[in-house]
Each structure stands twice: as structure tokens, then as C-alpha cells.
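MODEL INPUT / OUTPUT PAIR
PAIR INDEX: 1
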Amino acid sequence: MTLPEPVTQPEPAAVTDRLPDAALVRRPARVRLLWLLVVVVVLAALMVASVALGSRSVSWGDVWVALGGAEGSLEQAAVTKRIPRTLLAVVVGAALGLAGGVMQGVTRNPLADPGILGVNMGASLSVVTAVAFFGLTSPTGYVWVAMAGAAASAVFVYAIGSLGRGRATPLKLALAGAVTSAAFASLVSAVILPRNDISGSFRLWQIGGVGGASYERIGQILPFVAVGFAVCLLSARALNSLALGDELAAGLGERVAVIRATAALGAVVLCGAATAVAGPIGFVGLVVPHACRLLVGVDHRWLLPFSALVGAALLTAADVVGRVVARPEDIEVGIVTALIGAPFFIHIVRRQKVRDL
């Protein structure tokens, strides 16, 4: 007598459709470590390329001599100026990539991004307003004001996305963020255009870029970036619980509201610091976490550090591309990341099921 084969119940379609492709595959530790090595090597190569490539051709000999502090020729002087620009691209890219990964984890929204949700533009509006009407001149003050604007914008967008029937769905948040970003961008232009004394300095800053970097500017944001990194990375394990759903996370002993507030605070600090020094650079926080999930899966203990490294690599590569394709002029990294991120955003939207949006 043969026993009938047990019948397994398939997972509900509503659940499996919401799982990202990367969640269906468990990444072994050795695979993750291999990808970590690859990403670190790529980032190092991009940093060397960022120092060597630009409007002026620089030999590798001049690069090594300039790294020692020499400025005996124009080539070596160019390398000396590119070093802080490269470091700023790494810091800002890492901050935006990590902030995007945290925002997607906090909201469980695949469309979450500091640019799409209006966080970066809120930080920009607060900085421009403080400079134009309150005479703000301190670079450290820029960071505090930018963080306040980023936080206020995040709360505003989430409140708008929560209106009406149902919860704050990914599409509602994306639409609320897009409308808020457009409105804030118009307000930024309205504040800057009548002010000839500040319009020149803020014109390129509005686009988002790392040109004009200096060690002093990097040093001013490093404490804030370090705090944001620490808060976000320490929230990784709790974000794994949050990904299971609020009720299950609460059943596991997690304080859901505290997790969300703490992780979101870390992301806001990173966005505010990055925007204060480099302007509103978009789409890095959207593209990077999705790419990292394909490499290391959805475990935030791996995903968040990888998002920081890949974000640094992406922004450094974008800066190199912007300097090379339009010699001797520069294309700001905000334009390059938009060209990369906008099609990716459309692709993510098209992949989502209508009922999930």
C-alpha cells in the first residue's frame, strides 16, 4: 500500500509577488565575501581612475608623485585638486547608498530613495532659504539646516502618502515625493533667481556635484556621516525583523516605532550631510540597494555595508564619466546619476503588480 504524496500548499500569490527576486536565493557567506572583495577592488580602481582622468591627461608617474604632496607641474597640481574631489564622491556616494537601503527597509518600499521621496530637495530648500533670508554662512550650519529640512520633508511626504484609503503604498509615496520634489525645486528657484549675490554659487549646487571639493568641507561633514553610518548599521538586525511585517516583528520583541524612528533618523542625517556639501543628487539610493540585493540577498547586515560601498563606487564612476565625456567641460554627477536612475525607476515601477502599488 502506497501512501499518497503530501500536498503542499503554495504560498499565496499576494505574498510571493511582493518578494524581490534576490530574496528567493540564499547567498552563502563565501559568495558574499567574494563579492565584497570584488566591490572593494572596483572602488579602489575607480578612485585611482578619478585621480588620473579628467580634462588634462596625467601620467601614472605624476599621480604617484602628486600623492606624495608634490606640485611641481600642472599635471601634479591637477592630481592634488582631484584627490579631495574623489574622497568627497566616495563619502557622499556611500552616504546616499546607505540611506537608500535604510529607507527601503524602513518603509518596505522598493521605490524609496532620498531623491524620489523629496528628502534631498527638502534639505536643499532649507539651506537656500537659510542662506537667502537668514544670512547662514557656516558650512556646519548648512548641515544642521539640511538635516532639519530633510526630516521635515520626509514626514510631510509620508503624511501625504498616507492620506485616503489604505496605507502609504509605494506608488502613493513615490507620487507624493515626486510632487513635493517638483514643488520644492520651484521654490528653490524662486528664492535664488532674484538674489544675484547667491545665484552664481548655488546654480551648480542645485544640480548636485562634487566639484570644488576640499579637505575642509569633507572634514566638516565627516562627524555627521560617521553618526549616520553608526545609527544605520546598528539598525540592520532590527530592519530584518521589520521586513517580516509589523505584527511579527512586535511578536519577536521588537519595538517597531522605535526601530523606524531610529533608522529613519540615521538616513536623514546622511541625506542632510550629503546634500549640504554636494547638493541634491538623486537616484543613487534607488539603484544601489536593488543592485546589492542581487549580490548578497536581503539580509540588512550585509545589504547596508554593501550599499555604502557600491554607492561610493557608483558616484565616483559617475564623476569620472562626467569629466571624460565632455572634455574640457564637466557634467555634474547629478545629471549622470539621473540618466542612469530614471530608466531604472521606470523598470522598477513596471515590475510591481498593480495590487501592490
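PAIR INDEX: 2
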Amino acid sequence: MVTDQARRRLLKAALFGAATPMLPFGCGSISKPTLRTPALIGCALSGRERFNVVVADQQGQPISELPLPSRGHGVAINAPVGHAVVFARRPGDYLMVFDYQRGELIQLRQADARRHYYGHGVYSSDGQWLYVTEGDRSTSRGIIGVYEVATGYQKRDEFTGFGLGPHEVISMPNGTLAIGVGGVHTHGREPMNLDRMRPSLSYVSSQGHLLDQITLADKKLSIRHLAHDGNKTVLCGQQYRGQTEGNPALLSMHTQGEGMIDLQAEPEQWARFNHYIASIAATEEWILATSPRGNCYGIWSKRDLKLVELAPLPDASGVVVFDNVFRVSSGAGSVISQSNPHDKTVLRSSIQWDNHWNAIV
């Protein structure tokens, strides 16, 4: 149920729906409209209980921002129509559609009765549909909500039958949906079934048919975040829900019809990630994964799947790729530009980045 307090937050955000112009560094007056091209979008913090979604250029420098009613998480982008959607952090009670070119609010939608959002969604490759990870509030039954763009994001269908607690959904190049299913029933954010977890990587057709489902050997590894390598391989980032002293592999890869393969690192290196992988991205040669809880990110070789760099970064958050170069965000305002291990440039932005980035392509 959406509380009165949540409704007030939603109304406040809707009323304050105009883009906030950014100030140039070192300047005390409002700048003229920027000519920089929007390239990435991510959520941010801007003070106590103040949350924004920020449109930025390729260097992570802000162009415009919109206020959010509560903390945001993931973003989906529909470049052909210039729309983006930001999803509330789980258990979320809103999604917000906006025009990222103009910085204008289009729609602020509350979760349906007895539903909550899990923080992620993705558009279909043709941009006509938005697929959103949702759950039944009382049971955590996993749902993919299907929304039609042309009708103002009316909900047209719900896909289910793949498990409890889906978190991220991505669209593969062939249109298949890959879903990171955590397998955890939660009350709010409190886990209720850690002794009976059933996490999986599930593949669902665009019509809602379950095509394939694979699990990890360690059932305490809750699959959370996903990416694909531009072809047929899904990269899976896990949250470990087992014993505190355990340090299993937190990053795996899978191609339909084959087995799950763990990426390699020493136990003490996995320990640095503090049991949690957040954002993942891949270039032709490298895979990069962040851990805000571990204040670090790692780079693996795609050729031999071995960890080749483990770098400190306070509140390491989102990662995207532009022209085969990684951009990594930080809650401390740092932006890392890195094309290969040990060759990086550190930039600064005025934004306290939070959770994930998504590239406009």
C-alpha cells in the first residue's frame, strides 16, 4: 500500500517537475543553456533526504537534473522518443518518466495496489514497450510489468512464474529478456527466507514465456545485477547471503544452452567487494564490476576471466562504456575514465552519484 507520506513525496516531485539548471564550476550565477550532448543518466544524492536524477555528458559532467520523491535506483532509456524512466529503490512505490533532452517530467506513476518496484526496467529494442521488475508485496512473487509507450505507459500485461524477488531485467540483442532473480522473499528490505532461497538467471520471451532458467551452485548467492557483452553472453553480479566469513565468486557469465561460469579472483580479493556487486559493463577485452559496499571496482580479462585490477574507489557506483572506454561513477563525485587496466584518468563532477548509470545510445 502506498502511504500518505509517499503520496505527498510524489506530489511534491510532480509539482517541482522542471529541470534544475546547472551552475558552471566556480560561477555564482545561473548558466545559459548548455550545448553539451546528453550521454548518460543516473540517480544522485543532494543532501539529507534529497534525491535527483541527473543527465550528464560523456565525462559525467551534469547538464540538468530533476528531483525525485525518494531515492532512485536504475534508469531505462528510450533514445528514439527521448524518454527515460527512473525507478524507485526497492521496495519502490514509483517510476518516473521524463524527457531527458528538455529535462521535463512526463509522468510520475505510483506502483499498483499490492505491488512494488524492484528498481530496474528496460525498453524493448523497438522502444514500444517498457518491462519493469515488480513484486507482490505480501509474497515477493516476481512479476515483469509490461507498459505500452504509445498509450502513455498504460500497463498491458504481467509476466510471472520465474521466482521470487527479481531485481534487474535486461533485453538481449535477440529481444529475449534476461532476469536476475534474487530468490529472496522480503518484508520491506528485511529478508524472510534466507534458508530457502531459490535464486536464478531466467530467460523470458517478449510474450512472457519462460525459455530457460539456471541457478548457481551456491544457493546463498542472490543474483542481482546484469549486463550483456553485446552478443549472447549475460554477466551476473551477485549478493552473498551466506556466512559472513565466506567469500565466494560474486561475478559469473552465462550463454543460453551452456553452464554458468564464475569469473576468477582470490578469496581475499572477493572479500574486498564486501559480498556485493552493483553495476557491470564490458568492452571487447575487459569486464568491469563495481561495489559501493566494498568501495572498489574490479577489471577482469574476457580472454581468461581472471581479475587483473582491483582498484579503490569510495562508493563505486555506476559504469557505462563509450567508444570502448569505461566511465565509472562514485558517490564521492569522482568519475573514472579507463580503457584498460592500470591506465586511468580521474575526473571530478559536482554530483554525488548513486547506484547506476545508463548510457544514451
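PAIR 2 NOTE: Residues 163 and 239 are 17 Å apart (CA to CA).
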